[in-house]
């Protein structure tokens, strides 16, 4: 069996620990070309550039651009003959429907879908709590073992199993687990619809806050079973099969408005 060709990107930047961990894991059975942002591009969504400077890197290519830039540049110019796009491992979960459009990690996978190339977005949930802030945790490639294990399994088996016949990309969130706990089980999920953004205006400044993360830290997680957030907090690898194009439905009320527009 031939080795699959993988375009690997992310939004944390090509030098991030999670990116290198995933590159090394996939390289054990696939031909991997990195096309990733030169610097951290977290939460830029599907922002696109008109020009993106390319710098050669030991793993492939570093772009002075966004994750979506990397997908387009890779598939159109730098490594066009790949079998799959993999984006990650993002340090921090990308869970919930409202996060999908913001995430650079997920957006790189969405961009691939418009090229009809299967894609996997991969993130790792770093639990809050303790004396160390979550963003200062997961500094060793071994911390990402659960995420890289899930990625390797899905890259090997998802397409032959026909998974991408029914979805465009997979949004995968793995828990950060202690090695003594053993591997996590996998659950097929759908994005949580919980939303708790707030804004406070004071002294000429609006402070925006995503209170979902605060609620998670306190253990207040009302998401039902079957959602991505519930699964990953409970210690499972969450896999959400998603489609990229926006859906549209026949809408009688809008049809009526269109018919009377000129009148």
UniProtKB/TrEMBL annotation:
<dbReference type="InterPro" id="IPR002828">
    <property type="entry name" value="SurE-like_Pase/nucleotidase"/>
</dbReference>
<protein>
    <recommendedName>
        <fullName>5'-nucleotidase SurE</fullName>
        <ecNumber>3.1.3.5</ecNumber>
    </recommendedName>
</protein>
<dbReference type="GO" id="GO:0046872">
    <property type="term" value="F:metal ion binding"/>
</dbReference>
<dbReference type="Pfam" id="PF01975">
    <property type="entry name" value="SurE"/>
</dbReference>
<feature type="domain" description="Survival protein SurE-like phosphatase/nucleotidase">
    <location>
        <begin position="6"/>
        <end position="189"/>
    </location>
</feature>
<dbReference type="GO" id="GO:0000166">
    <property type="term" value="F:nucleotide binding"/>
</dbReference>
<dbReference type="InterPro" id="IPR036523">
    <property type="entry name" value="SurE-like_sf"/>
</dbReference>
<feature type="binding site">
    <location>
        <position position="90"/>
    </location>
    <ligand>
        <name>a divalent metal cation</name>
    </ligand>
</feature>
<keyword id="KW-0963">Cytoplasm</keyword>
<comment type="function">
    <text>Nucleotidase that shows phosphatase activity on nucleoside 5'-monophosphates.</text>
</comment>
<keyword id="KW-0547">Nucleotide-binding</keyword>
<dbReference type="InterPro" id="IPR030048">
    <property type="entry name" value="SurE"/>
</dbReference>
<dbReference type="GO" id="GO:0005737">
    <property type="term" value="C:cytoplasm"/>
</dbReference>
<keyword id="KW-0378">Hydrolase</keyword>
<feature type="binding site">
    <location>
        <position position="42"/>
    </location>
    <ligand>
        <name>a divalent metal cation</name>
    </ligand>
</feature>
<dbReference type="GO" id="GO:0008253">
    <property type="term" value="F:5'-nucleotidase activity"/>
</dbReference>
<keyword id="KW-0479">Metal-binding</keyword>
<feature type="binding site">
    <location>
        <position position="11"/>
    </location>
    <ligand>
        <name>a divalent metal cation</name>
    </ligand>
</feature>
<feature type="binding site">
    <location>
        <position position="12"/>
    </location>
    <ligand>
        <name>a divalent metal cation</name>
    </ligand>
</feature>
<comment type="similarity">
    <text>Belongs to the SurE nucleotidase family.</text>
</comment>
């Amino acid at each position: 069996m031939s080795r699959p060709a993988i375009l690997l990107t992310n939004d944390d930047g090509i030098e991030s620990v999670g990116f290198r961990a995933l590159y090394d894991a996939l390289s054990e059975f696939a031909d991997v070309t990195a096309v990733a942002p030169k610097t951290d591009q977290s939460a830029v969504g599907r922002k696109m550039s008109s020009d993106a400077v390319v710098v050669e890197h030991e793993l492939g290519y570093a772009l002075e651009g966004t994750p979506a830039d990397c997908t387009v540049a890779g598939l159109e110019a730098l490594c066009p003959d790949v079998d799959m796009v993999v984006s990650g491992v993002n340090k921090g979960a990308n869970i919930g429907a409202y996060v999908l459009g913001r995430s650079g990690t997920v957006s790189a996978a969405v961009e691939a879908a418009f090229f009809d190339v299967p894609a996997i977005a991969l993130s790792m949930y770093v639990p809050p709590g303790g004396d160390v802030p979550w963003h200062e945790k997961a500094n060793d490639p071994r911390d990402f073992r659960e995420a890289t294990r899930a990625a390797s399994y899905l890259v090997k088996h998802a397409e032959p199993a026909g998974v991408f016949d029914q979805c465009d990309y997979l949004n995968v969130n793995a828990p950060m687990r202690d090695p003594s706990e053993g591997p996590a089980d996998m659950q097929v999920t759908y994005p949580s619809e919980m939303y708790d953004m707030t804004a406070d205006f004071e002294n000429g400044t609006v402070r925006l806050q995503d209170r979902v993360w605060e609620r998670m830290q306190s253990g207040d997680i009302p998401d039902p079973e079957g959602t991505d957030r519930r699964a990953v907090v409970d210690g499972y690898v969450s896999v959400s099969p998603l489609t990229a194009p926006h859906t549209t439905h026949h809408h009688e009320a809008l049809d009526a408005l269109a018919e009377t527009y000129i009148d």
